[in-house]
Specification:
single chain; 7% strand
Length: 676
């Protein structure tokens, strides 16, 4: 059923692109005026008639395209798995995927493949032992205690530095703790209190599955929750983590005892195989101090329970049976409202992409990313860069000194399109057709070793941080570069054969969005070389902050779901990038159309097509639980407000759709915010 649906969706997008240039009038809600609610006008019928699949928490243009990519990757994985004589990257993909699809072997093994790791935890006797095992588990991709990795030095972007940062919270949506948030542990509302109770019950159930008696498991879960709450209490909020200056504290290794007392760092580092280093960025000093104190004063037995929990939490999705279903019950149903688990093939494909993405990505690019797509995308990037340069040179609120440095930063952008020039070599990762969970942990270990080996080494500005099939894009402050994987360079975002208005309203705005991240509230603090350096005059900085404050206020007034408002401070970077991306892409489109016939498509001008294309790519529906969760942890606003929010500020939109003053889609002159 899913595969059939995905195929139908792919055909739909292809036919829409050919027939309507990206416009889908069958999904318009004609009962709503564009001047009143543009998101609803463009997407209203779609929202009413297209249900969210039972195995997804949200559904929209990004999801549909990513689902189509999963189906393509599924075919590639199946082909590879059938080839028992495969070599090179095909063999790595073949073995990894086949091990994940061997359901009977996974069920029969249960948690046995992890027994040596549980024995290692059980043998802990001292705080130094805790650190030793923390270092070992860090190598396996278990995000317990604190984070330790290599990253570009924020103030010396040509070199990688060791970074220690807060981590170790389990109450999050992903097993990688990407969405871990301290506020989950403290929010006083009824939903949050219930979620904490469900979390403790989930930990207890996992301990039961490992063989503990129910009463003991419940008591153990409470002790884990107490320790995690103490770690959360010392953690910075998501808004605080957005401030790069506040999260940079470069010290010498000799100075570490000032933060951690007599904590034995060698016990941790001896297990990581990290190269010797003399300096480290302690990103959140208060957290590290609190961790060292907890390590000293909390019972070792509590730390053992915590590490046991963190290991099973990381491994549960790959153990099958009750471990996997219980993991889904909490992290899927309780947290996001999803009622059905994704099909087995899809879960394994996603893990294959996460774990050995450069191997699978090579197969994907060879079949699905033609050279002409890359060439057309590069052309669009060049046009968007030119439009942003012109905007920077004419901004009335920016003084000449700051403007010159802003243009220099734009000109220094690196651009990566489609896939990396150099692929990772997974030959040392030891992937085979044995236990699936061990393949996942070995792939994690490969990646952690690869990362830590970069400490003290030059930064590779051409390194990728997304896999080629990913439907997304990113800007990196330290690299000062933008990246667009092959996965997003497809309809409805991008079609080399589509009209300019559609491409500029789709991938053009995405490109402009990522470029604007170089000049948002966080990105603007990094210079052309990617260094955390204040290159703004006080006058221009004050002008920017005044406008950014307007964005924060505007989006803080929007409601995500029920009585939960958006966090305007958390989402300001993405909202600034949306607003800037729209203006830049629109200007680039107008240049591209100069001197060409203004062709109507389905009765809409190119300018109107541009905004319709934009509203279409942000078509998005979410379950209430997921909407509430994202309002607290996601730096992106919901699709509705990514459309109606920025468009209500734009004269270009008002002119295209004849939006009069006082209309819902036209903020008052005093309220309108324009930055880039």
């Amino acid at each position: 059923m899913r595969k059939h649906t995905l195929t139908a969706v792919a055909v739909l997008f292809a036919s829409v692109s050919a027939a309507f240039g990206g416009i889908e009038p069958q999904y318009f809600d004609r009962s709503v005026k564009p001047q009143d609610d543009f998101f609803q006008f463009v997407n209203g019928t779609w929202l009413k008639t297209v249900p969210i699949p039972s195995d997804l928490a949200r559904y929209g243009s990004f999801t549909i395209l990513q689902e189509d990519n999963w189906a393509k990757l599924h075919d590639l994985c199946e082909q590879a798995a059938r080839d028992t004589a495969a070599t090179g990257v095909e063999k790595i993909v073949s073995d990894f995927y086949a091990s994940g699809m061997n359901v009977s072997a996974i069920a029969a093994a249960g948690a046995k493949p992890l027994q040596s790791e549980f024995d290692r935890i059980a043998a802990i006797k001292t705080p130094d032992d805790v650190l030793h095992v923390l270092g070992h588990l860090r190598m396996l991709g278990v995000h317990a205690g604190f984070g330790f990795a290599a990253a570009p030095d924020d103030k010396d972007s040509k070199h990688n530095i060791a970074v220690v940062r807060q981590s170790g919270l389990g109450l999050a949506i992903t097993d990688q703790s990407r969405d871990a948030d301290r506020d989950y542990y403290f929010n006083p509302d009824a939903k949050s209190r219930r979620l904490r109770q469900q979390y403790v019950a989930h930990i207890a159930k996992m301990f039961e599955l490992l063989g503990d008696e129910p009463a003991a498991a419940t008591a153990e879960a409470g002790r884990v929750m107490r320790l995690e709450t103490e770690l959360a209490l010392a953690s910075s909020s998501r808004v605080q983590l957005r401030d790069p200056q506040a999260n940079y504290h470069k010290i010498t290794v000799a100075e570490l005892p000032e933060y951690t007392g007599d904590m034995d760092w060698n016990s941790f580092l001896s297990e990581t195989n990290a190269p010797k280093f003399d300096v480290v960025n302690v990103a959140q000093p208060d957290f590290l101090r609190a961790f060292a104190t907890l390590l000293r004063v909390d019972p070792v037995d509590d730390w053992k329970l915590y590490l046991r929990w963190q290991l099973i939490r990381r491994a549960a999705p790959y153990l099958g049976g009750q471990f996997e279903s219980e993991n889904f019950k909490f992290f899927g149903t309780d947290m996001t409202g999803v009622t059905a688990q994704e099909p087995r093939w899809k879960r394994v494909v996603i893990t294959t992409d996460d774990s050995i993405g450069d191997a699978l990505g090579q197969l994907y690019v060879a079949k699905y990313f033609p050279p002409e797509a890359k060439a057309r995308a590069l052309e669009l990037v060049a046009n968007l860069r030119a439009a942003l340069r012109e905007r920077l040179q004419t901004l009335p609120w920016m003084d000449a000194e700051t403007r010159a440095k802003a243009v220099a930063k734009l000109d220094a952008f690196t651009v990566k399109i489609g896939y990396p020039d150099t692929w990772k070599d997974y030959s040392s990762a030891h992937i085979d057709r044995g236990p699936y969970v061990l393949n996942v942990l070995r792939a994690d270990e490969f990646e952690v070793r690869r990362n830590l080996a970069k400490i003290g080494q030059p930064v590779d500005k051409m390194e990728w941080y997304m896999t080629p099939p990913t439907v997304n894009a990113y800007y990196s402050s330290s690299i000062n570069g933008i990246t667009f994987p092959a996965g997003i360079l497809q309809p409805p975002f991008f079609d080399p054969k589509a009209d300019d208005a559609v491409n500029y309203g789709g991938i053009g705005v995405v490109i402009g969005h990522e470029m604007t991240h170089g000049f948002d509230d966080s990105g603007r603090q990094f210079d052309a070389d990617g260094n955390l350096h204040d290159w703004w005059t006080p006058q221009s900085a004050a002008q920017f902050k005044e406008r950014a404050a307007g964005i924060v206020k505007q989006f803080s007034d929007y409601v995500a779901v029920d009585d939960i408002h958006l966090n305007g401070a958390l989402t300001q970077g993405e909202n600034i990038a949306d607003l800037g991306g729209l203006r830049i892409a629109y200007a680039a489109m107008e240049k591209a159309l100069a001197g060409k016939p203004r062709t109507l498509v389905d009765g809409f001008t190119p300018e109107q097509q541009f905004f319709i294309s934009y509203a279409t790519i942000w078509r998005d529906a979410m379950r209430p639980a997921e909407a509430a969760r994202r309002a607290r942890v996601d730096p992106h606003s919901p699709g509705k407000w990514r459309v109606d929010g920025p468009l209500s500020n734009l004269d270009e939109f008002a002119k295209a759709f004849d939006v009069s003053e006082g209309a819902p889609m036209r903020r008052s002159p005093a309220e309108r915010v324009l930055i880039w």
